[in-house]
Amino acid sequence: MKNFEVTFKNGLLLDKQTGKRINLKPFETYYLQGDDNSFLLEEYIKTDYKPLDASQKLKTLENRHNGYELKQLASAGDKFVFRVGLGKRFEEDVVREYLFDAALQEDLYMKKKHNKASWTLCNCVCNSPNLLEGELGFPFQNVEANSLSELFANVVSTYFNMKRSTACNAFKTFYYYPKEDRPTLYWLKSSKKLNLDLKRKAIVINRKQKEILKRN
Predict the structure, then answer these.
(1) Per-residue pLDDT averaged across 43-71, rounded?
(2) Which of 115, 107, 106 lies closest to 68, judged by CA?
(3) CA 146 – CA 176 distance, rounded (Å)
(4) For the stretch 114-145, what's the b/e string if a residue is b when 16 or more beta carbons lie within 10 angstroms of its beta carbon?
(5) Residue 73 · residue 87 · CB < 8 Å
(6) Integer distance in angstroms from the first to the last C-alpha of the chain?
(7) In this structure, what DSSP letter does residue 183 have?
(8) Would you say which domain of life the source belongs to (predicted)?
């Protein structure tokens, strides 16, 4: 039986004697011994996300993004779903695809500079409280973030570390939660669903039509 004196840093177990990372074999049983106060049953990284109400959010964005045009895409309390797929299945992975939900804690806006064409999403406090489909092999716990792209990255880095990129196009990745259907991976892929990119395009088209009417 091997014994190591280890330290824990940045999510890694490090051998104190050699400084090298210790990799654990999936599904094996390990016994950890340490002082009582060395074990944290709650999440040890606490990020103080403070959602803003509707008027505070808009005022904050207007001050922060002076010279930008703002358009609201969704409201606090709205829910989305997003898929995480792995390029290949490792020994410890039960499946290769997972479906999560996302809940907005404050209003979601997109922004663009005046006289520019491209829109980008504004920061928005949000969280992913549930794994809707897929098997991790252990209970899923809530993940929080300050934007939808950060939420995707945090879910990936927490549950699929180094198994795929943490980057995503949030416009195309996050789909509005269905009002009548139960969201599943099959539901998401079986036909075109409303994602943030389609909502963005609809807003842009409507905006252009109003500009044309004004000119006429």
Answers:
(1) 87
(2) 115
(3) 18
(4) eeeeebebbbbbbbbeebbbbeeeeebeebbb
(5) no
(6) 83
(7) P
(8) Bacteria
- The pLDDT tens digits of the residues spanning 125-143 come to 999 999 999 999 888 999 9
Strand order across the 120-121 sheet: 68-74, 108-113, 120-121
Q: Residue 41: what are its φ and ψ, rounded to 5°?
A: -80, -25
Ranked by mean pLDDT, the top range of 12-21, 48-57, 69-78, 199-208 is 69-78
Q: Using CA atoms in the order 7, 8, 14, 18, what is the torsion angle rounded to 10 degrees?
A: -30
Residues 6 or more apart whose Cβ sits within 8 Å of residue 56: none
pLDDT digits (tens, 9 = 90+) for 21-41: 777 777 778 888 888 777 766
Distance of CA 213 to the CA centre of its chain: 39
Half-sphere exposure of 13 (CA within 13 A, CB side): 9
Strands 131-133 and 108-113: unpaired
Query: Strand pairing partners for 79?
Result: 103
CA gap 70, 212 in Å, rounded? 20
Q: What is the mean pLDDT of the chain?
A: 88
